[in-house]
Specification:
single chain; 394 residues; alpha/beta; three-stranded antiparallel beta sheet; 13% strand; binds pyridoxal-5'-phosphate
């Protein structure tokens, strides 16, 4: 069948492909643990589910305004006001199908063909495809494990050209868990804005930052540059609501209206029931969020200690999200020459599914998710450790 050039160029998500491979091996009777997951293993808090049930019972099942019901948009604005001192209102927010659709909408509304987008690497798998779909050109800017995979202003500036239009910052980062302090984030965003760039800050993991590190947001600087900064967030990771598809964006009213226009011709409003659930999440108790954060921090500490013990492996200590991104390239040899081969080897030998760093723009590394219970996590890490010893001996 003849498909468009646009879709032919789009690669399937590497993480989803890997999970499918692991599933296939399971079906063949192999015992496989997946550390390739990108979602919390906790259930959505009960009060959020109750709000959704109530919405159904009350017949809140019809179309809503495209950018979301105003009560929810105001609650989203309240999040940015309360947590980061943004001076925004409901009209500065739009609710979309996950942070992913917010990013899609933003790039579609900001980019013209050939515009360059600076993308600190390693980057989240979907950014290059989202940029390409909007006609843009992704320009990766390499960061190093020794610097916690963080970018500095000088590194950023060397990559700005007269075609550069947008900088995408993701903090805490998927896949590295690297996280900027408020000062570092402000310095990067301000430098980009001074150069006339638009800054998209993807802060989907901002509730998963582990003390003593503190959450940081571009929402504060947005007050000064509302036409050059947009912040993306959502409930998938903070409230364990990946399947509900609730993402939101803080942006200038004109950009919000443009995104709303685009969304009106594609998906329209997000599910009405999910909107009521989101409202309950944003305006109700955050106790569960704190509890999940504490559990993730414990797992981070545990997993990081284990990985530190693997010979030939260098790992930056993640400050947030739920991933480790160890550099394993010193172990590569003729039979295991890259991150893809190493992940295939670990899948077969250790029965553990991981995502190759190449999918995130860094072939030196592999991504380990610690979003699963401690016992399984411990078993998986021990299996990887043992299998890696075999690679070292080869
Ligand atoms: N941004 C990053 C960095 C992510 O890791 C993810 C999900 O994995 C998203 C955005 C999209 O999240 P959502 O499920 O809200 O679309």
């Amino acid at each position: 069948m003849e498909l468009s050039k646009r879709i032919t160029g789009v690669k399937p998500s590497a993480t989803l492909t890997l999970n499918a491979q692991a599933q296939q091996l399971r079906e063949q009777g192999h015992e496989i643990i997946s550390l390739a997951v990108g979602e919390p293993d906790f259930p959505t808090p009960a009060h959020v589910c109750a709000a959704a049930k109530e919405a159904i019972d009350q017949g809140f099942t019809r179309y809503t305004p495209v950018p979301g019901i105003m009560e929810l948009r105001e609650a989203v604005a309240g999040y940015f006001v309360h947590n980061y001192g943004a001076r925004c209102e409901g009209k500065n927010t739009i609710v979309s199908n996950g942070g992913k659709q917010c990013l899609y909408n933003l790039l579609q509304c900001l980019l013209n063909p050939g515009d360059e987008v600076l993308l600190p690497a390693p980057y989240w798998v979907s950014y290059p495809a989202l940029i390409e779909l909007a006609g843009g050109v992704a320009v990766p800017v390499q960061t190093e494990p020794e610097q916690g995979f963080l970018l500095n202003v000088e590194q950023l500036m060397t990559r700005v050209t007269d075609r550069t239009k947008v900088l995408v910052l993701n903090t805490p980062s998927n896949p590295t868990g690297g996280h900027y302090t408020q000062e570092q984030l402000d310095a990067l965003a301000r430098a980009a804005v001074d150069k006339g760039l638009f800054v998209i800050a993807d802060e989907i993991y901002d509730q998963l930052v582990y003390p003593p590190a503190k959450p940081a947001s571009a929402a504060t600087l947005w007050n000064e540059f509302p036409e050059q900064i947009a912040v993306v967030n959502g409930l998938a990771k903070s409230f364990a609501m990946t399947g509900w598809r609730v993402g939101y964006c803080l942006a200038h009213e004109d950009l919000v209206n443009a995104m709303s226009r685009l969304q009106s011709q594609s998906s329209s409003n997000i599910c009405s029931v999910a909107q009521k659930a989101a409202l309950a999440a944003l305006t109700g108790s955050w106790e569960e969020v704190s509890r999940m954060r504490a559990a993730f921090q414990k797992r981070r500490d545990f997993a990081f200690d284990k990985v530190q013990g693997w010979a030939g492996v260098v790992c930056a200590k993640p400050q947030g999200a739920f991933y480790l991104f160890p550099k394993v390239s010193d172990l590569y040899n003729a039979t295991v020459p890259d991150s893809g081969a190493l992940c295939s080897f670990l899948l077969e030998k250790a029965g553990v599914a991981l995502v190759p760093g190449a999918a995130f723009g860094d072939d030196r590394c592999i991504r380990i998710s610690y979003a699963l219970d401690e016992k399984t996590l411990a078993a998986a890490l021990d299996k990887i450790g043992l299998a890696l010893q075999e690679v070292v001996q080869k």
